[in-house]
């Protein structure tokens, strides 16, 4: 009897695992959380003043959300990212006066094509709500001009539009000016209910009711774009 119970339990796990595999499959973890690039900083050149544009080739916006399997602990983070990003950053003196960034979420890619197809119609529903936008509402002012290669931390206060809902947010960011590039990274915890995003439930798979928006933005002078 005990052996039969063990076989039944094993079968249940296999069936559940198959359902999970149809959607996400334990993949051994995704990309590491965002961080500034390491290495020796470039020599500073030019001036920080002016308009800077997002370099899509070096930038991304994405999500990180924990997935659960009904009968097993799910230490797997699903991570999806898109490099379809546009934006501008304006600096005058010691002040970042404006930041506008938009991302096409229809191009989000993770390590599973099935997951990517699902979120076009579920959760983020990117077919209905293809664009995410952020606009700075409070200028960011530094006490002194940041040295090239120096990592600085600030809070970017602005409006985030996601899934057709716009909310005021405060996003902790890290930034670094290295030569002809300004690199900015950050992440923000997102409660799905705040943006009318439904928690994904598919067979034996569910996501948590919250996740993380994360981004890496590399800005270059507008005249170099």
| Silhouette | elongated
Structural class: mainly beta
Secondary-structure element sequence?
Answer: HEEEEEHEEEEEEEE
CATH architecture: Beta Barrel
Strand content: 35-45%
CATH homologous superfamily (4th level) name: Lipid/polyisoprenoid-binding, YceI-like
User: Which sequence of strands runs across the widest sheet?
Assistant: 1-4-5-6-8-9-10-13
The protein's oligomeric status is: single chain
Number of strands: 13
CATH-defined topology:
Lipocalin
Helix content, binned percent: 10-25%
- Summarize model confidence as the mean pLDDT: 84
Poorly predicted ranges (pLDDT <50, ≥5 residues)?
1-28
- How many helical elements? 2
Radius of gyration: 21 Å
- Report, as a whole number of angstroms, the end-to-end distance: 71 Å
In summary, what is this structure?
This protein is mainly beta and 225 residues long. The chain has helices at 2-23, 113-118; strands at 50-54, 60-69, 77-82, 85-92, 95-104, 131-136, 140-141, 151-162, 165-178, 181-191, 201-202, 205-207, 210-221. It is built from 2 helices and 13 strands.
């Amino acid at each position: 009897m005990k052996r039969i119970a063990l076989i039944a339990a094993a079968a249940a796990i296999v069936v559940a695992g198959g359902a999970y595999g149809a959607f996400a499959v334990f993949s051994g973890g995704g990309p590491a959380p965002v961080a500034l690039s390491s290495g020796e900083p470039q020599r500073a050149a030019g001036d920080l003043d002016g308009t800077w544009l997002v370099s899509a080739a070096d930038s991304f916006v994405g999500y990180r959300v924990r997935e659960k399997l009904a009968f097993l602990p799910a230490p797997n983070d699903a991570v999806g990212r898109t490099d379809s990003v546009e934006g501008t950053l304006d600096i005058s003196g010691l002040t970042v006066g404006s930041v506008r960034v938009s991302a096409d979420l229809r191009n989000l890619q993770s390590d599973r094509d099935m997951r990517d197809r699902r979120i076009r119609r579920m959760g983020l529903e990117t077919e209905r709500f293809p664009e995410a936008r952020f606009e700075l509402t409070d200028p960011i002012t530094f006490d002194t001009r940041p040295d090239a290669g120096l990592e600085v931390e600030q809070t970017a206060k602005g409006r985030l539009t996601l899934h057709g809902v716009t909310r005021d947010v405060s996003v902790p960011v890290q930034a670094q000016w290295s030569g002809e590039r300004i690199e900015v990274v950050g992440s923000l915890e997102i409660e799905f209910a705040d943006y009318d995003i439904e928690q994904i439930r598919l067979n034996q798979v569910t996501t948590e009711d919250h996740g993380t928006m994360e981004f890496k933005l590399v800005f270059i002078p507008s005249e170099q774009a």
